[in-house]
Write a structure and sequence with these properties.
single chain, about 260 residues, MetI-like fold, 2 domains, about 85% helix
Length: about 260
């Protein structure tokens, strides 16, 4: 048990040490150069606002996190369904892939106001849709690759046994796509938080992190604005770590060796 903890500490202490050095240098720079908070607030000021309003930070992070989660779920489901169709029908692949690439290239700041006009700006619908669109592309691309890039020898073996397409899909293609699915999730989960946060800048309910960051900066409460940024970073990390934990729990044979 002690050896296991020692092995874990080997991976934990380097980033912790780097973070402490970075924060110390940041604090020293702000104090030594007398940098004003509107340019760059000190870490101590950010920490004071963060821990001083911890309940508020939790509430706003929870609101943005649930919006991101809804978009992540819908975008993932849509990506998986389209990947299954693209793998089965070449015409669907030729139609969906360019369309998905085009949607992924649309900036969030251009997409959000359009969806706000199409749906009620006071609801979460535009923000969830923006998040789902951003999530859709990496999930479609990664799952499609996993379904298509199977070993030719294994595929030929299944065909020699006269296996039906659904049997090949269930027994060969889906298991092969699992590591690709989690790779897509590791990309999509933090992106979902970013998309939800950016979408909150363009009106609507003010309970989310994006809205709070904008209002705090507008009211010259720069320490509090950066505290909300810290809450957003933590939220994104939580999403990513949950995906990693689920991967290692459900697929221990691939969780430590698949792409990060």
């Amino acid at each position: 048990m002690s050896e296991a903890w020692a092995d874990r500490l080997k991976f934990v202490w380097p980033p912790v040490l780097i973070a402490l050095v970075f924060l110390g240098a940041w604090q020293l720079l702000v104090v030594a150069r007398d940098i004003k908070p509107f340019v760059l607030p000190a870490p101590t000021l950010i920490a004071e606002n963060f821990f001083g309003g911890l309940d508020l930070m939790w509430g706003t992070a929870y609101y943005t996190g649930t919006t991101a989660l809804l978009g992540l779920v819908f975008g993932t489901i849509a990506g998986i369904v389209m990947a299954l169709l693209a793998q089965r029908f070449i015409v669907v692949n030729n139609l969906i892939t360019p369309l998905a690439a085009g949607l992924a290239a649309v900036p969030i700041i251009a997409l959000t106001p359009i969806l706000n006009n199409m749906f009620s700006i006071t609801s979460r619908t535009p923000r969830v849709l923006v998040t789902a669109i951003i999530v859709f592309f990496p999930m479609l691309v990664n799952v499609t690759r996993g379904l298509v890039q199977v070993q030719p020898v294994q595929l030929e073996l299944m065909r020699s046994m006269n296996a039906q397409p659904r049997t090949v899909l269930r027994s060969l293609r889906v298991p092969n796509a699992i590591p690709f699915f989690f790779t897509g999730m590791k990309i999509a989960a933090p992106l979902a938080v970013i998309a939800a946060l950016v979408a909150e800048y363009f009106g609507g309910p003010q309970q989310g992190l994006g809205s709070r960051i904008a209002s705090s900066a507008a009211n010259t409460a720069y320490g509090r604005a950066w505290a909300y940024v810290v809450a957003a970073i933590i939220t994104g990390l939580v999403f990513y770590l949950i995906v990693v934990a689920v991967e290692r729990w459900t697929t221990p044979w691939t969780g430590r060796t698949s792409s990060a």
